[in-house]
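FW: tagging you since you asked about this chain on Friday. Here's the raw sequence from the shared folder, copied in full. Didn't touch anything.
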Amino acid sequence: MITYDRLFIAGSWEAPSDPGLLDIRSPHDQSVIGRAAQARPADVDRAVAAARAAFDEGPWPRTAPADRIAAVRRLNALREADAGRIADLFSAENGSAAWFTRAGQPGLTRQAEAYLRAAETFGWEEVLDSDSAARVAVRREPVGVVAAVIPWNSPFSAALAKVIPALLAGNTVVLKVSPENSLSMALLAGLLERAGLPAGVVSVLPADRETSEYLVSHPGVDKISFTGSTGAGRRIAAIAGRQLKRVSLELGGKSAAIILPDADVERAVAGLKFASLLNNGESCIAQTRVLAPRARYEEVVTALKDLVESLKVGDPADPDTFIGPMIRRDQQQRVRDYIEVGIMEGARLVTGGPDVPPGLESGNYVTPTVFADVDNSMRIAREEIFGPVLVVIPYDDEDEAVRIANDSEYGLSGGVWSADEARALEVARRLRTGTVGVNGASVSFDGPFGGYKASGIGREYGAVGLAQYVEHKTVTV
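HL: got it, structure written out here
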């Protein structure tokens, strides 16, 4: 049992305005694994006031970039030293399988190192070549107080993708995290405390949706950085628009994996095990629409069926488990409801279904499911399910495959599989989506990550991600 009865506000642990504690329950068996304080608007006021003072009057925005880089390196080293505990707590809170939470720890290091490389070569102040008599300098300065709001599905990755570039740029941050992740994010707060940042620079607040909206609406906030659902993103964009706040949004997805006719189906399906079903399918980048050539359609369907049926579903702490439970009961029911929708829409249920896996009724489990004979107009092909549900859509030629892949309100991720790399690259260039993996290549943290269309505004990772947290000032002499 882990208990956090205080909130990390402005760099120290403070008593919350509401002394009540929230029970944090295991998605595996509903047992209480911890209790934690939750922030209310009064706590947001304290955190924003401290962040405002630290930005307007404190040393952090005026600290040399090299010193800010050194502070982030300390934070990253502290996180690396605690990687095992982070992974275990992530599994306990979220139900994410241990293979995923442990495999993700080196990825957090690569994510941080990419930001650090970008900061080391970033043009914080540059003198431009100009045809005027004046000397023209461009300064890149911090935006101000950043409200960073993250979802529950991958909290450490989402938190650090925002906190690290915001800090490197000299901003102060109020990080709003989901109640379900109160324990792991309190652990992150402890790492931030040990990293030795000045008072007021960072606060970490677990809070409900109403308090989140209070934060993003707060007049003391200069920029909102949000990861979450498209519906919530639209709401935040409207708030930011009214107040003319800077905003970046990383939102939902319904990504397509195109298996071209010459692809090695066995290799492609082995890659989709991770590209489509990572983190129990609770991933915005999951490639849940599988586009297969009609001539090889049943081959692909059968291979996906065999793959999904081979995956162990169960206790996320078990090293043999590939798919654990959904994080909450309502998320479990949401996924089961979508499976029922697919059946009612007339899709062919290849494997899985709405029933809970036998013996796992005490947890938030769903049966991994594959649908075939899916038309791209069906709800199960258009709406983000956020669970281990795959749909297989046939196509006749490459142009149709590209058209189907692009026929979505989303554009976050995607994949192309082919024996001919040049052909796969040509198809990848035609896709209206933010990232495309060819033959299973993973995302690079040096390149920008984000979405087209309803999948978001702005980018994370590397130099482009760092640039989301600066303002540009031109000085002429």
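FW: The longest strand covers residues 136-142.
HL: agreed, and The two ends are 61 Å apart (CA to CA).
FW: great, closing this out.
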